Amino acid sequence: MKTMIHTIKEINARKDILPNHTLGYQIFDSCYTISKVMESSLVFLTGQEEFKPNFRNSTGSILAALVGSGGSSLSVAASRILGLYDMPQVGYTSSSSILSDKFQFKTYLRVVPSDMFQSEAMVNLVKHFGWVWVGAIAADDDYGKYGVKAFKDKMESANLCVAFSETIPKVYSNEKMQKVVDAVKSSTAKVIVLYTSDIDLSPFVLEMVHHNITDRTWIASEAWITSALIAKPEYFPYFGGTIGFAMPRTIIPGLKEFLYDVHPSKDPNDVLTIEFWQTAFNCTWPNSSVPYNVDHRVNMTGKEDRLYDMSDQLCTGEEKLEDLKNTYLDTSQLRITNNVKQAVYAVAHGLDLLTRCQERKGPFEYGGCAYIPTFEYWETISLFFAYRISISKTRLISMRPVFRKLIVLICVVGEIGVCTAYLVLEPPSMFKNIEIQNVKIIFECNEGSIEFLCSIFGFDVLLALLCFLTTFVARKLPDNYYEGKCITFGMLVFFIVWISFVPAYLSTKGKFKVAVEIFAILASSYGLLGCLFLPKCFIILLRPKRNTDETVGGRVPTVDRSIQLTSASVSSELNSTTVSTVLDE
User: Fold this and answer.
1) Handedness of CA 149, 151, 156, 160 (dihedral sign)
2) pTM above threshold 0.85
3) Whether residue 49 sits in one domain with residue 192
4) Which of 192, 217, 433, 544 could be cross-linked to 442 through a Cys-Cys bond (beta carbons 3.0 to 4.6 Å apart)?
5) What angle separates helix 483-506 from helix 450-473, to the nearest 10 degrees?
6) Contacts (Cβ under 8 Å, ≥6 apart) of 406
7) Are 166 and 137 in contact (CB under 8 A)?
């Protein structure tokens, strides 16, 4: 946190980056929990003050970007919300490979490499030492699970074996923890990979000490290889000799002096500094209700490892940071700290490029630039879209019938050709899946060529989109009964069903995938049929007097005497027609 503030002040003092702008900030403590991250993300987006930030130094300007969160699972949770609103997020320590998926996390960036590279490096390390029988343990979160999954895949590709794969529970469970310990004790594998953070690893370390397991070689992920929480003398007989990959360290000029310049009296509203001061010096700051950073977790002995919420001793303000025996003032191992600085500078450089943006050369659609105070650029192109739609409508109406038939023929032949090639060259087949459950064999459908399947789906989407756009721009042609309106609503139903189908299909396994496919096909088919034929059935069955060539196909306004129009409704129809005519012209 202090590094981020130091970096922001450094940027504001520079003249070559954002010379006419000042960066502000809001800081929220995630407490290393997903619920707090979700809460903070919503506050960032809404700007509401129901949940006030732990520290704030801003003028109420619109949020430009978010730096964080501290772990992969926390970043995943935040990005799923922020991505919906195209809010940029820059991570400084979240390395899970899932965050590289731009379909799910389109606005997430980071200054650390993906765990795919770390997993590959671990396998190369195993190969270098000639190990062929290795165990794997993961934290019960996105970081651990995806990290171990990538490691196991790389091991399989290298023809190496994974002896066992276990998960450390996120919330302490003696039963689950004993299962992990038993796997370590009973396995003949003496080399074990640990993909977890130092916080989640602590209960497992205590278990290793309790069971006196010493004859193991541990391969550590970057999240705990340099952690002071694990690197304690009493743990050396059990984890001494651990090898792993760490973030590069560096020196940040001026940071140590900035860290010394901290005191609760400088800002009574800085609750994070007050909390730090109280916890560091075991005292209570006068007139403050800020509690300690209390650790409520229970270790393997069942005893609570925690501090009291408050201390009877009051802080005098004369306490000296130089007397502390912790890592706060240790600037010799700046690894993740340096990543925080790089993340802040990445945001600053991005904003600086926006301030220097030239029209028609910008990063947005049609070379547009953003207006920095609000970051809005869509007004810079709305009239353009309205103009293009008007031109498209005019061209569609004036198109000759022979061209329309030719377009339909090409689309039909193209669809038939792709489907025929798919079924002849690489047809789908059945295969036995034994990876999901060891005790069951699940028969699944092998779709054959993914390229052909994607081509078919892509072609269907293209045809549906063309159909929708065509009927939409021509939906107000002057017919008493125009089928384009029915087709427009039918295509809307089609898109809604298949957009809902994608997440439902990806989240199901085995036979349920077939059920989801059948439901989507039936729902979209009946939706199209209903939108196309229900209006016709309405006229045939309930308005038989309107079922004539003159009424249905004619362009002369008719009045159904069975429907009594009020003066207000007639006026509304006339006004709507007038407006539509003016827009069309």
Assistant:
1) negative
2) no
3) no
4) 433
5) 150
6) none
7) yes
